[in-house]
Write a structure and sequence with these properties.
- The complex is a heterodimer of chains A (132) and B (339).
- Chain A has one domain.
- Helices cover 86% and strands 0% of the residues of chain A.
- Chain A has 6 helices and no strands.
- The C terminus of chain A is likely disordered.
- With 339 residues, chain B is mostly helical.
- In chain B, helix 4 packs across helix 5.
- Chain B is extended and about 95 Å long.
- The chains are: A mainly alpha (132), B mainly alpha (339).
């Protein structure tokens, strides 16, 4: 009885993870713009792999291997959103025609980003003062 | 002691040098003539023959220009008609010969290879058997791979570490921007830094918080992999790569000003030098005592303990340091041209 429930639960979790992975892959190919594609690709590392690993954990029970899988989920959740965030920020910083590509945007943030890249000479000494 | 010849200018070596530089014997003679004549004329003072001398010089100059032009035309014509044809033919013949030679060699080798999977193959000799059966007793390393690469075949691993170091040297030669003698940054360095700051994530709070949490973990994990190289899978190469990745993450989060406090070009030099020379010296001692059946101070210890397996953990540390520094150096050199 308990084995059946566990099997069904793990199947459900793995199936949900598979759905997330598939939709993310479709999104990577369908979306036209870099920021939208990042939105789709970040889904793979966070939700997709998390659900798949949870399914595997439920299927194997609580062993050392499943504890390692939990740690893997934790590290993926720590690192993958940050890398997506950095890619998105770089895109906002270096794209000069953001108006054409992005329909909705936080104009104040974008202005702040664009201005931050200009004053190189002023930015360097402030860092130095912090160090001192 | 070399003899000083009075007619050194006319001996064959300076003639050869002159011929190399100018490429024309006619010009050489003209030059020699001029040299000797001006030397003589300097002795004869007087404004009277100044005008005639100038006219003479002018005439000779025109003559030499004409000679040079003729010579250039001749060589140019030869190079563009006959010479290029000869070189093209030589190139083709050499290329075909080299290709055919390599094809024959490889086909011959492939034809003489032993049959795949046969137990009589040279691969299946007593060496691998011995590694597997007696590796742990002889080297003291539970991880047989570590025992092989750092004990039986330690020279091989020294070569690999040196390959990494040489690759780093080549990248430094190609990518490092020249620094000025008075330790001020040159314009090129400033430009490179400005370029670098364009694409750098500028003090990104999210990345910094994540790096604060992750970098110590990554470095710790790298140290664990290096130190347990002789007990569990891992070792200097993989642990060094992990540590290098941690350093690169730290650099990306906090910028060069923070990393320059503990990792500069001098650090790279000192660490690489110390690690490689420690490896070479300790392994030379080990090989010397082993080959001459002398008593060695290196003992294998209890297999499975942290400080066991003779030199292997220390060699792992040396290799790990070299790999870590090389990875970080590659990244910084490709990014900014300096460390």
């Amino acid at each position: 009885m308990i084995d059946t429930i566990r099997l069904i639960a793990s199947l459900l979790l793995t199936g949900a993870g598979l759905f997330c992975l598939l939709s993310a892959v479709v999104g990577v190919y369908r979306f036209r713009y870099a920021l939208s594609r990042i939105h789709a690709a970040a889904l793979i590392d966070t939700v997709g792999i998390c659900l798949m690993l949870l399914g595997v954990i439920v299927a194997t029970g609580f062993t050392v291997a499943s504890a390692k899988m939990l740690v893997v989920i934790g590290f993926l959740w720590l690192t993958s959103p940050v890398s997506s965030h950095l890619i998105g920020r770089l895109e906002v910083t270096i794209n000069d025609e953001l108006d054409k590509d992005a329909a909705v945007m936080d104009r104040a943030y974008v202005e702040h980003e664009k201005e931050a890249e200009l004053p190189i000479e002023t930015a360097a000494p402030t860092d130095k003062e912090e160090d001192a | 002691m070399a003899k000083i010849r009075p007619d050194y200018e006319n001996s064959w070596w300076p003639r050869f040098l002159r011929w190399l530089e100018s490429g024309s014997s006619a010009l050489d003679d003209a030059l020699l003539d001029e040299l000797s004549s001006t030397a003589e004329e300097h002795l004869v003072e007087g404004a009277a023959n100044a005008s005639t001398r100038e006219a003479h010089d002018e005439e000779r100059r025109l003559l030499s220009i004409r000679d040079e032009k003729l010579l250039y035309d001749r060589i140019h014509r030869w190079a563009h008609s006959k010479g290029s044809r000869i070189i093209r033919w030589l190139y083709r013949i050499t290329a075909v010969a080299i290709c055919v030679g390599i094809i024959i060699l490889l086909l011959n080798t492939a034809a003489n290879l032993p049959p795949f999977g046969s137990p009589d193959n040279p691969v299946n000799n007593e060496v691998s058997q011995r590694y597997i059966e007696q590796g742990m007793q002889e080297t003291g390393a539970v991880n047989i791979v570590a025992g092989m690469i750092l004990d039986y075949r330690a020279f091989d691993t020294l070569g690999e570490s040196n390959v990494l170091f040489i690759a780093a040297c080549a990248v430094i030669i190609l990518m490092r921007l020249p620094s000025s003698p008075d330790s001020k940054p040159t314009t090129e360095q400033l430009e490179a830094e400005a370029d670098d700051r364009m694409y750098e994530p500028k003090n990104d709070m999210i990345l910094q918080h994540q790096a604060n949490f992750l970098v110590p973990l990554i470095l710790l994990f790298g140290i664990y992999v290096i130190m347990n190289g002789h007990i569990s899978p891992g070792g200097g190469f993989s642990g060094g790569a992990i540590m290098g990745a941690g350093l690169i993450l730290y650099l990306n989060a906090f910028g060069f000003r923070k990393t320059e406090r503990f990792f500069t070009f001098t650090t790279f030099r000192i660490v690489s030098l110390c690690a490689l020379s420690f490896y070479a010296v300790s392994k030379a001692y080990s090989f010397f005592t082993g080959a001459n059946h002398l008593d060695s101070i290196i003992t294998t210890g209890t297999p499975g303990m942290l400080f066991s397996a003779g030199l292997i953990p220390y060699l792992n540390i040396a290799v790990g340091l070299v790999v870590c520094c090389t990875m970080y150096a590659f990244y910084t050199l490709f990014r900014k041209g300096d460390m």
